[in-house]
Amino acid sequence: MAELDRLAGIAEDVIRRCRAKGASEADVAASIDAGLSVGVRLGEVETVERTRDRGVSLTVYFGKRKGSASTADLDPKSIEQTVEHACAIARHTEEDPANGLADPALLAKDKPDLDLWHPWDISPQEAIRLAVEIEDAGRAFDPRIDNSDGASVQVGASLTAYANSLGFVGTERGTHHSLSVALIAEDANGMQRDYWYDSVRAAGDFIPAAQLGRKAAERTIARLGARRLSTRDCPVLFVPEVARSLIGNFLSAVSGGALYRRASFLVDHVGKPVFPEWMQLVERPRIPRGHGSTAFDAEGVATRDSDLIKDGVLARYILGSYSARKLGLQSTGNAGGIHNVVVQPGSDDFAALLKRMHTGLLVTELMGQGVSLITGDYSRGASGFWVENGEIVYPVEEITIAANLRDMFQNIAAVGRDVDPRSHILTGSILLERMTVAGDA
């Protein structure tokens, strides 16, 4: 693709400029992002926006001194100024022994096609019609749905080239598209709001628009008549789209930045049990059409399938080159983040998990940020449904769920096979044996 070749040429040229100014090492990423965003509410167009963003970000090293700068302009003069700024910063910073490019032996040599490029040729008028169809399907579901927060259609495509002074040059292209709608229903007990969405690499993978609207409507109607609970300890079942936040807390706790700062309750836990012995978490960075798929990380290090949790035991941390050096370890190919975490599902579907829980709280939404990675303390606002005898009996709201992540991970009783594919964290529902639910006194 001509644009990718152009970006690669820009990246390589920036490396040459940095070396000419005395940098001992350098790396650069050049990117172009384009998109279309359409929003409608109550059948009327609210927003239509086209975007096209370009940029170059670079890091230079003068020995162990580091400087970084970026520009949103691909003009050669702007790039030259950015190079000068990065070099000036590097000359005046303190040395850090952990600074530097990735180990050359770890750089990606193969760059397979991961089927991430599926441009969606949809006009603004077609996107508006699609958003209206989604919203109309939801609003027509039940007369109690009398308002809407709107429906949206998002189209996105990105091109990226990365190069460093070790001779590595890599290019990637990918698309991300999404549909969403949020609806409002009202009865004698008050108003409730809920939503649904879909996120895909290829537009042909979307669920039907009318189905998405009806799903949002079903969720909204189900929340009517929500009650509060008295404070109690009980089992808690997280639906998949909420369960992945729990896995996200674990990933943050084993990421390099938190570990070398000793700001995680999982410091020095490699080789120790963290989850039940039947739990398996694997990073699979090269899943075709995966939301987090990539052949190399943000430093050019090759990605590969690798255990994170093996038989409940922490197998490794999540490290880029800098954090790895700070810890005396080797990069795991995770500069820039994690790539497709797969939580091994069990045999139970969602209905079977409800039966297994018998009586307890089904969590469908979380609010707030009450999670401490340092201590593992967990306290978040929640809403969902109360379950008795394996059946949903009524919706609940304005409650808080609390425990410690260390105990929560160990007390996972089951992972469902109802895996949510809309994220780079692939998990089914997660059932915890017990948490504290705080509601009315």
UniProtKB/TrEMBL annotation:
<keyword id="KW-0378">Hydrolase</keyword>
<dbReference type="InterPro" id="IPR002510">
    <property type="entry name" value="Metalloprtase-TldD/E_N"/>
</dbReference>
<feature type="domain" description="Metalloprotease TldD/E C-terminal">
    <location>
        <begin position="232"/>
        <end position="439"/>
    </location>
</feature>
<dbReference type="InterPro" id="IPR045569">
    <property type="entry name" value="Metalloprtase-TldD/E_C"/>
</dbReference>
<protein>
    <submittedName>
        <fullName>Metalloprotease PmbA</fullName>
    </submittedName>
</protein>
<comment type="similarity">
    <text>Belongs to the peptidase U62 family.</text>
</comment>
<dbReference type="InterPro" id="IPR047657">
    <property type="entry name" value="PmbA"/>
</dbReference>
<keyword id="KW-0482">Metalloprotease</keyword>
<feature type="domain" description="Metalloprotease TldD/E N-terminal">
    <location>
        <begin position="26"/>
        <end position="90"/>
    </location>
</feature>
<dbReference type="InterPro" id="IPR036059">
    <property type="entry name" value="TldD/PmbA_sf"/>
</dbReference>
<dbReference type="Pfam" id="PF19290">
    <property type="entry name" value="PmbA_TldD_2nd"/>
</dbReference>
<feature type="domain" description="Metalloprotease TldD/E central">
    <location>
        <begin position="118"/>
        <end position="224"/>
    </location>
</feature>
<dbReference type="InterPro" id="IPR045570">
    <property type="entry name" value="Metalloprtase-TldD/E_cen_dom"/>
</dbReference>
<dbReference type="InterPro" id="IPR035068">
    <property type="entry name" value="TldD/PmbA_N"/>
</dbReference>
<dbReference type="Pfam" id="PF19289">
    <property type="entry name" value="PmbA_TldD_3rd"/>
</dbReference>
<keyword id="KW-0645">Protease</keyword>
<dbReference type="Pfam" id="PF01523">
    <property type="entry name" value="PmbA_TldD_1st"/>
</dbReference>
<dbReference type="GO" id="GO:0008237">
    <property type="term" value="F:metallopeptidase activity"/>
</dbReference>
